[in-house]
Amino acid sequence: MVTPLRGLVYRLVVAVDVEGYSKLDALDQSLVQSRLSDVLDVAARKAGLDRDLWYRQVRGDGELAVLPTDADAAWVVAHLTEQLVEALADLRRAGTPLRMRVAMHCGPLTAGAFGLVGDAPIVTCRLLDAKVVRDALAGAADEDLVLVISQQLHDDVVRTRFHDLDPSRFRPTRFRVKNQVYAGYLCAGAPRRGWPNG
Predict the structure, then answer these.
(1) Which of 8, 36, 95, 127 is least surrounded by Cβ atoms within 10 Å, i.e. has the fewest?
(2) Is 125 domain-assigned?
(3) For residue 196, cis peptide bond before it (omega within 30 degrees of 0)
(4) Domain Guanylate cyclase, which positions (predicted)?
């Protein structure tokens, strides 16, 4: 059972959002939510992560999750993303494709009366909802997932190359929202070196 957030904590935040959800009717939205839940469960389990330990905030067509304090950020970026790509490929082969954006950032946050508050959830959601990220997914015809991470997470985690993370698979991006400039890195598909054959 997940422990409620108390006080200001520094955690890895992961957000996901499904492409084209608002254009669907109510029945198809319900089916997409069910498929998304299955994809997240399967991907986390295959990556060795327990979603029951995550602090999760549902967003209708997605989720904002805070991972436990002992989460290995490099492992999550590498293996959770890879397993999400695999799960989405399985859906496509089954004739029920799902495409998604995934955003990750590490920073301070706490629980508020109406959900998460602090820098980490704000930055993560800004990255997830950025037009440049939506456009990247729309333009990635051969991929069902685009990952965007904060510059800080890229510098602190991806550049280490732990768990075969491949910095060359990420490209920098910058955008402005509400007079604030955000910097991040985009990766279409899995972020590990040699994937899917390595």
Answers:
(1) 95
(2) yes
(3) yes
(4) 12-128
**Measured distance CA(12)–CA(104) in Å, rounded:** 7
- Confirm whether pTM is higher than 0.90: yes
DSSP-assigned letters across all residues of the chain: -PPPP-S-EEEEEEEEEETTGGGS-HHHHHHHHHHHHHHHHHHHHHTT--GGGSEEEE-SSEEEEE--TT--HHHIIIIIHHHHHHHHHHHHHTT----EEEEEEEEEEEEETTEEESHHHHHHHHHHH-HHHHHHHHH-TT-SEEEEEEHHHHHHTGGGTGGGB-GGG-EEEEEEETTEEEEEEEEES--BTTTTT-
Interval 56-98: pLDDT, tens = 998 878 999 999 999 999 999 999 999 999 999 999 999 999 9
Per the CB < 8 A criterion, the answer to whether 35 and 86 are in contact is no
Q: Rounded CA gap, 24 and 44, in Å?
A: 26
- Are 119 and 18 contacting, i.e. CB atoms less than 8 angstroms apart? no
Domain that residue 140 falls in: 9-188
- What are phi and psi for residue 2, nearest 5 degrees? -70, 140
